[in-house]
């Protein structure tokens, strides 16, 4: 295991991304819908434009079939409005035929001048269910086909899910290479797919010791395939001028939450039964009476959200220090969000982002 002193010698330069609430996940009070914050092109476009003005390096466009609006269609609509920021577009494996998806992604990358990255999601398709190992086997096939086509190479693939002999689409990415693939998952099949086919392994909030253990495990798995992974961390933030104000904002956020409604919101997600979601519940169960599982890591958001269920809470120095503690473990990319997303985006951009050494991930493959 790499020592903390050894890690401290490396650069802390990280990619800092925000989150566009395409999946109807925007609230002033968790669990209390607000029509003004519902997923729509104008609302999510506003979040993206604020993130670019604020100096963020990238923005995640999430995907959820039953929720909100489509990530690829939204990306095409917002791309001409962005001058600098990257787009991290989520795609769900199986929703689109891989060659056509490769063509769409290459087109998006061209529209963005080479500023596309892809969040690959392995999930059940709406109305269907696959056993976990078969679902991840399908995901691996999709990732392999996409990367080959986006690298401008012909595909000869004969797998359990796809049987293809096909040339790459005429449209190529700006660089002629595949965008970076971000991918997450805690189950054994998910970890193996990440080790074999991802560029950036994403994780949801957890304690620092657990993050360190997971990174060590994923480094070893990738090395076994002759590869090296980079690491990303998805977490919410609540930053205020003082710690007391930040904690008060956290309490306010859940002050009108009906527990039954919170449970219903968690169950809406196609991924609500995944190993990762179960781990978020375990982290929440280990928290103290105020919902903190360790210093400045508050799990209250998980009471009304499937998936990423915790926030870094504190004053600007505390939030920065917490992010840098993760960076010391090897995290190179952060995907942040906060409620309401546009307002918290501006708070973080003003109070914390200038204190971080940040920039988009380079294509070091």
Write a brief structural summary.
The chain has 365 residues and is of the alpha/beta class.
If you had to describe this structure to a student in words, what would you say it looks like?
The protein is an alpha/beta fold. It has a single domain (4-355), classed as Luciferase-like domain (TIM Barrel, Alpha-Beta Barrel), CATH 3.20.20. It contains twelve helices and 13 strands. The strands form two sheets. An eight-stranded parallel β-barrel has the order 1-2-3-4-7-8-9-13, surrounded by eight helices. Strands 5-6 form a two-stranded antiparallel sheet. Mean pLDDT is 92; it is low at 1-10.
CATH architecture annotation name: Alpha-Beta Barrel
Helix content bin: 25-40%
Rg, Å, rounded:
19 Å
First-to-last CA distance: 23 Å
Regions with little confidence, pLDDT below 50 for 5+ residues: 1-10
Structural class by sheet pairing and helices = alpha/beta
What proportion strand? 15-25%
Question: What about the largest sheet?
Answer: 8 strands, parallel, barrel
CATH class: Alpha Beta
Task: Give the overall form.
Answer: globular
Order of helices and strands: HEHEHEHEHEEEHEHEHHHEEEHEH
Q: How many strands in all?
A: 13
The CATH topology is TIM Barrel
Overall pLDDT metric: 92
How many DSSP H or I helices? Answer: 12
Output the CATH homologous superfamily: Luciferase-like domain
Strand arrangement across the biggest beta sheet: 1-2-3-4-7-8-9-13
Whole-number tally of structural domains:
1
């Amino acid at each position: 295991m790499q020592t903390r002193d050894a890690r401290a010698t490396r650069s802390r330069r990280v990619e800092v991304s925000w989150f566009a609430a395409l999946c109807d996940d925007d609230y002033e009070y968790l669990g209390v819908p607000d029509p003004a914050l519902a997923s729509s092109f104008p609302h999510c476009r506003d979040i993206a434009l604020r993130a670019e003005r604020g100096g963020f390096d990238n923005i995640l466009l999430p995907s959820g079939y039953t929720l909100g609006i489509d990530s690829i269609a939204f990306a095409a609509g917002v791309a001409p409005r962005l001058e600098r920021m990257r787009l991290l577009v989520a795609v769900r494996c199986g929703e689109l035929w891989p060659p056509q998806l490769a063509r769409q992604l290459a087109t998006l990358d061209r529209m963005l001048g080479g500023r596309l990255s892809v969040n690959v999601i392995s999930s059940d398709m709406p109305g269907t269910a696959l056993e976990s190992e078969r679902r991840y086997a399908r995901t691996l096939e999709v990732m392999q086909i996409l990367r080959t086509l986006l690298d401008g190479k012909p595909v000869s693939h004969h797998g359990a899910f796809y049987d293809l002999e096909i040339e790459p689409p005429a449209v190529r990415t700006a660089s002629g290479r595949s965008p970076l693939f971000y991918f997450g998952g805690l189950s054994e099949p998910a970890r193996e797919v990440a080790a074999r086919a991802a560029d950036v392994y994403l994780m949801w909030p957890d304690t620092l010791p657990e993050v360190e253990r997971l990174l060590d495990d994923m480094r070893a798995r990738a090395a076994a395939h002759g590869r090296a992974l980079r690491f990303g961390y998805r977490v919410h933030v609540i930053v205020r001028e003082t710690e007391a104000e930040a904690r008060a904002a956290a309490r306010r956020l859940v002050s009108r939450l009906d527990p039954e409604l919170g449970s219903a919101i968690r169950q809406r997600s196609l991924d609500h039964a995944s190993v990762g979601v179960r781990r978020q519940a375990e982290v929440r169960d280990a928290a103290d009476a105020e919902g903190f599982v360790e210093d400045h890591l508050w799990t209250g958001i998980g009471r009304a959200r499937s998936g990423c269920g915790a926030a870094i809470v504190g004053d600007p120095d505390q939030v920065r220090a917490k992010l840098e503690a993760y960076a010391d473990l090897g995290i190179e990319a952060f995907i942040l969000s906060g409620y309401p997303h546009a307002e918290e985006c501006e708070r973080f951009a003003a109070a914390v982002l200038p204190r971080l050494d940040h920039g988009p991930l380079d294509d070091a493959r």
